[in-house]
Amino acid sequence: MSSENVEHKRLYYIDWLRVLVILTIIPFHASLTYLRYGVVPIKAPVSGLSALPFLIVEVPLGDFFMTLLFFVSGVSSWYSFNNRDAGRYIRERLQKLMQPFGLGFLFLCPVTAYIQALYEGFRGGFILPQFFWYDIFHYHGYMHLWFLFYLFVFSLICVPFFKSWQRDESRIVRIGAFLSQGNRMLLPIGFIVLLELCLRPFFHTGDYIIVGDWANVAVYLSLFIFGYVYAANLHVQEKLKEYFKPSVVFGTLSLAALYFVNIHTQMFYYDAFYLGALWVLAKGVYECSAIIFLLNFAKLHLNRKSRPLGYLNKLPSRFIFFTICLSPFLHGFLSTSKYTNSRNSCLWSHCPTWQFSLYANCGKG
What we know:
Blueprint: H1 12-23, H2 25-32, H3 52-62, H4 65-82, H5 86-119, H6 128-134, H7 146-167, H8 170-179, H9 186-199, H10 214-232, H11 234-239, H12 244-267, H13 273-301, H14 307-313, H15 322-334, H16 339-361
Helix pairs in contact: 1-4, 1-13, 2-3, 2-16, 3-12, 4-7, 4-10, 5-7, 5-15, 5-16, 7-10, 9-10, 9-13, 12-13, 15-16
């Protein structure tokens, strides 16, 4: 694609957003360990005021950072597809996404599952039959490598659209021209909010197996496509500048609503229908507002090349096997540690899988 309205230069602020979001993964999942909701191998939830420090970290991150990662992956896919045909794009996706996913599932996830089992009182010496067969859901299967699997599936689904837009670039130009007129940018924003309202209350399993996880599939796939359109069309990028101040206002209000909901449900374990309805509405508004705010802020302050960014962007995906060295050490440590130390050590043994696999493979072009 060689559209007249696209500047062919790397959007360094997109790289920075990816890096900064990935850096929040460790504190976010550390907080999930001690909260009522959230899927992590080690759970030790607390209630009352003890949960407040963890909510302060979890709430602003939990309801948007995965949506931002899929949006950024859509941006990166535009650069990737722009330099390849469909066949090479699929091969590149296989190499960057499914290769580390498969190896991570076979070698990393069982180690983390074993540490989880030890935490839960497992005294056996061979957990593989349990992990790969009858207890696979209990041990979360491919765990947080689900992002790689979802992203690969989305990439395959979108190949016909990307190929069509590459073959006839006037189509993507018309999409950008349409969205850039008046307040039509509210259409994709409203669409995301509508998906949250209609699907999130009914399809929010937390199992991350695609089938049945329709709320996440619909929202993340839509944002992946929106990210592609954003990267392909300079008019769309410029139009989003007009929504910077509204994103601050609506982002602040929706974040306050999310804190209100989580204080009731995760600090005091109080559940009510109106809290669930408020949560899905606030989540939809907040994730859109946060993405728009961060795109504008990063474009203004972070759109520059730097040596640290260049280093972080070149981390090899095989660095995820760092956990193979770390986990046996932690296993030996846990067997001689007290309960509290064991719990915290299990948590940190899980975090590198998240950080390095996601960062190294979240759809870079």
